[in-house]
Write a structure and sequence with these properties.
It is a single chain. Helices cover 32% and strands 28% of the residues. By secondary structure, it is of the alpha+beta class. The protein has a single domain, classed as Roll (Nuclear Transport Factor 2, Chain: A), CATH 3.10.450.50.
């Protein structure tokens, strides 16, 4: 039997803001998990390089929109495959990296996080085939703490279906490159 939890106020709020329809939170498998559980487990799997489990947490219909520092939807389409491709070069470059996430907002099927990446650049930074114009940088062994990034994750049927990213200028991959190139 399908578990259904009404969320009327949230549905009205998100509908007014252009968010996903959340008139009900359901899961066809019958075992419902909150957005917090799904997303935090996904991030932990990415940190550990457990790519199969991290990939399983993302819906095939996944999409990302937002700013990085330009509107994502204007220039690139980020789906499930592209989202996972972004994590792998960072893990190779900083095997000990951590998201250091902080929960800013939370509802049963949505969570907004502040991400503060840290790690030691003990591996090669190489986004070849993933991002254009990013130099290949040999290990520097610098301990890094990057500028904050913000992500809102939407979860349905225990999978991440959509992310809205807010990556300010000087954060993300750009921030990583600048941090390792500083004397």
């Amino acid at each position: 039997m399908k578990k259904i939890v009404p969320i009327t106020a949230l549905s009205l709020f998100l509908s007014a803001c252009g968010g996903n329809d959340t008139s009900e939170v359901s899961n066809s498998s019958g075992t419902w998990r909150s957005a917090k559980e799904v997303v935090l487990e996904h991030l932990q799997n990415v940190e550990q390089g457990n790519w199969q489990a991290a990939d399983a947490a993302i819906a095939d219909s996944y999409s990302m929109t937002g700013t990085i520092p330009f509107p994502v939807s204007l220039f690139v389409k980020i789906g499930k495959a592209q989202a996972m491709q972004m994590h792998k070069p960072r893990k190779r470059a900083m095997p000990d990296f951590k998201f250091n996430e902080r929960i800013l907002e939370e509802t049963p099927n949505r969570i907004k996080l502040e991400i503060n990446l840290t790690g030691t650049q003990s591996g090669v930074i190489d986004y070849t085939g993933v991002l254009n114009g990013i130099p290949v940088i040999q290990p520097t062994n610098k301990k890094l703490k990057l500028a904050a990034e913000f992500f809102t994750y939407f979860v349905k049927d225990n999978q991440i279906v959509r992310t809205i990213g807010e990556i300010p200028k000087g954060a993300g991959v750009d921030g990583l490159i600048k941090a390792v190139q500083q004397p």
